[in-house]
Amino acid sequence: MKKALLTLFFFTTLLAAEEMRIVSLSPAMTELICHLGKGHLLVGRSEVCDYPPEVRKLPVAGKFADPNVEKILRLKPTLVAANDLINPGAARIWERTGTKTVLCQVQTMADYRRCLLLLGETLDINERVRKELRLVEKNSVPLPPLNKKVLWVIWDAPLMAAGQNSFPTELMTLAGVQNIASEVKQPYFKCSYDFLLKNQPDAIIWTAAARSIQDLRKHRFWKKLKAVQNGDVIILDAADPIQRPGPRMFERLKFLRKKLEEL
């Protein structure tokens, strides 16, 4: 009898997991859900969720972290996954219909591990997640120091940079370089031009709006920085996988390290 009850519990849990309907409002969460083998449960996405390519066929349920509540309700999800919600009140609306919300705000590698564990529990894929966690541990060893001070530009109008306790800062540490703004006690902060002139970086990682080295050399401020004059700027697309806490970020981290070594 006990064995029969355990078997019934197992199949009930499995069925509940497979009956899930997930809307993801985060490119990182969308990619991670697919990587963990549960992409077939996705029924909606944000307008910037574009990887893996097959998710582009899914209905768009809003912007990044900013859902269209009516579209969410029409998709009848059982779970909404996001990094954060611009309007937390939206979750209360769909939760009245029985839809749960999973939020994974990732600013450190520890946050990423917690996100994996949460998805493992929620989607009943703990063993798959444990395998992924072993890969994370293997790849989370900082590379030998390069003795470079680096600025990571998040946005350029206004100028926003990565500071203390941010995911880009953690990536820079893993890449073996020092964040020039590591003492700024904000994950992302409005950076003044005076700060940069006094603390000139050896290199710049640019993930803001698309620019070229030539554009920066013509800019009234950026042209004053030695890193720009020397061409020591790594320009990455705003949607580069290195900015999406997920399975592709470690390969991109190796790429970033190689580019930093070449400067």
Summarize the structure.
This protein folds into two domains: 2-138, 3-Layer(aba) Sandwich (Rossmann fold), CATH 3.40.50.1980; 149-262, 3-Layer(aba) Sandwich (Rossmann fold). Strands 7, 8, 9, 10, 11 and 12 form a six-stranded mixed β-sheet that branches. Strands 2-1-5-6 form a four-stranded parallel β-sheet, sandwiched between helices. A two-stranded antiparallel sheet has the order 3-4. It is of the alpha/beta class and 263 residues long.
What keyword list fits this structure?
263 residues; alpha/beta; Rossmann fold; 2 domains; six-stranded mixed β-sheet; four-stranded parallel β-sheet; 11 helices; 12 strands; 41% helix; globular
If you average the pLDDT, what whole number results? Answer: 90
Chain oligomer state:
single chain
Give me the CATH fold name of the largest domain: Rossmann fold
Counting DSSP E segments of at least 2 residues, the number of strands comes to 12
Q: What is the helix fraction of residues, given as a range?
A: 40-55%
User: Distance between the terminal alpha carbons, to the nearest Å?
Assistant: 68 Å
From the spread of the alpha carbons, the general shape counts as globular
Share of residues in strands: 15-25%
* Rg result: 21 Å
CATH superfamily caption of the largest domain: Nitrogenase molybdenum iron protein domain
CATH architecture of the largest domain: 3-Layer(aba) Sandwich
**What structural class should be given to the helix and strand makeup?**
alpha/beta
**What string gives the helices and strands in order?**
HEHEEEHEHEHHEEHEEHEHHEH
CATH hierarchy, class of the largest domain: Alpha Beta
Low-confidence stretches: 1-15
Largest beta-sheet details:
6 strands, mixed
Please give the domain count. 2
Number of helices: 11
